[in-house]
Structures are given as structure tokens and as C-alpha cells.
Design goal:
The chain is α+β, with helices and mostly antiparallel strands. It has helices at about 15-20, 25-40, 50-60, 65-70, 120-130, 160-170, 185-190; strands spanning about 10, 45, 75-80, 90, 110, 130-135, 145-150, 155-160, 180-185, 195, 205. A five-stranded antiparallel beta sheet has the order 5-6-7-8-9. Strands 1-2-3 form a three-stranded antiparallel beta sheet.
Length: about 210
């Protein structure tokens, strides 16, 4: 999130806790978001204005489920004052479901980023698979996290391999229902973030108050 974010959408962990406690979200979502925020009390957080999600819908020509609008308007992610390269990355504790994201022996650093990169990705992920990416294993095409566009009532976060999807599409195979659920909800996904990694290489673990240089 860039420095162009309105100041009323950016806050400390105390601000974020206020957003959460005064929101109409379900108790479980509130609990998950509070856990995420209190795990990283020295970071800043942001929430989306309604028009931001609408802009993603317009740019990617999708209809994003209402639940995603609602939770991102309460709490979206941590705030960075300017875009960085490499971007801020996260790694997760084990997912809620038995899926492929932890099959690799490598440490998986994910970039949380909504949307697709271009028309080819849109055709594959959105049109053929019915999925809308919200995170990717940074620097690879091996693992994406996404929301389900086919069933707006499905609030789970799904996981799939972009490399596998490209191979399946090339072979004329259907991508319908080929993803695997990873987390029970967006709030649960945030609560399972174990560590952040920043552009300067420093990291912070859940519960730590100081960045660590590696």
C-alpha cells in the first residue's frame, strides 16, 4: 500500500484493534484479526476504502465476493509508506487444510497482492479456474493463494500451483475444482502469519517487538 493511502485508513495496532472491535464482523473473524494485530504491535496497519476494492473489480473485470469487501474494509494488511523491492513478504504457520503449499522443503515467502498480472493470467486463473489471486509464493509460479469467484459464499482461502495450471490448460484439462482449501478464512490466514520479511532483509517473528537482521 503506497503513501497515497488516506491517513484515516492507516493506523497503529491500537487503531487497528479499534477498527476490529467496532466492526460488524463475526466474533471468529474479530478474534483472528486481533491475534494478527497483537502479534505485531510495532507495525502499522491499513484498511481499504470501498472504492479500492471496486477499482480491482473494474481493472480485472471480476465481481469480488461481498465478504472480501467487508473484511478488507476493517483490516487489509500491514502498511508500508512506499512500495519496496523486494516487497514485504510473509511466511505462514501450517495451513488449516492438507494442501500442497507445505509439500516443498523450501521456506515459502509469500507476497500478499490482490489481482492478476495480465490478460493471460486473467484467462487462466479467473476465467478457467474461477479463482482470484491474493498472494503468491514470491519469485515462483508454484503456489498462489486465492478466493473463490464461483461460489461467493465460500469464504475459505484456496491454494493452487500456477505451473500445474499452465500445464493442465495446455493439455486441455479442466481447472474447475482443482484448487485446495488452505485457510478457513482471510482473517484466519492473517492470524497464521508467523514472520515478516522486509526489503532490507530484516525479519520480525510473531510476538517479537524488534526486527532481526539475517
Amino acid at each position: 500500500m503506497s503513501s497515497g493511502t488516506p491517513s484515516e485508513l492507516i493506523g497503529s495496532y491500537r487503531d487497528a484493534l479499534h477498527w476490529i472491535s467496532t466492526s460488524p464482523l463475526h466474533t471468529e473473524d474479530k478474534g483472528n484479526l486481533k491475534k494478527f494485530v497483537t502479534n505485531y504491535p510495532n507495525l502499522s496497519f491499513f484498511r481499504n476504502a470501498p472504492e479500492e476494492i471496486i477499482r480491482h473489480e473494474r481493472e480485472d473485470r471480476v465481481q469480488i465476493p461481498r465478504w472480501f469487501h467487508e473484511i478488507r474494509q476493517v483490516l487489509a494488511f500491514i502498511h508500508s509508506p512506499t512500495p519496496t523491492h523486494p516487497p514485504t513478504l510473509v511466511r505462514f504457520e501450517e495451513p488449516d487444510y492438507d494442501c500442497n503449499m507445505f509439500d516443498s522443503g523450501e521456506i515459502q515467502w509469500y507476497q500478499l497482492k490482490i489481482g492478476v498480472m495480465g490478460d493471460d493470467d486473467r484467462d487462466l486463473f479467473i476465467d478457467k479456474a474461477g479463482l482470484y489471486p491474493i498472494a503468491t509464493w514470491f519469485g515462483t509460479d508454484q503456489s498462489y493463494l486465492a478466493i473463490n469467484l464461483r461460489d461467493p459464499s465460500d469464504g475459505r482461502i484456496h491454494e493452487f500451483s500456477g505451473a500445474d495450471y499452465w500445464d493442465m490448460s495446455f493439455n486441455g484439462e479442466s481447472l474447475e475444482e482443482e484448487s485446495q482449501p488452505a485457510f478457513t478464512s482471510y482473517s484466519r490466514m492473517l492470524s497464521r502469519i508467523l514472520e515478516f520479511k522486509f526489503a532490507d532483509g530484516s525479519t520480525v517473528l510473531a510476538g517479537q517487538t524488534q526486527h532481526q537482521n539475517k
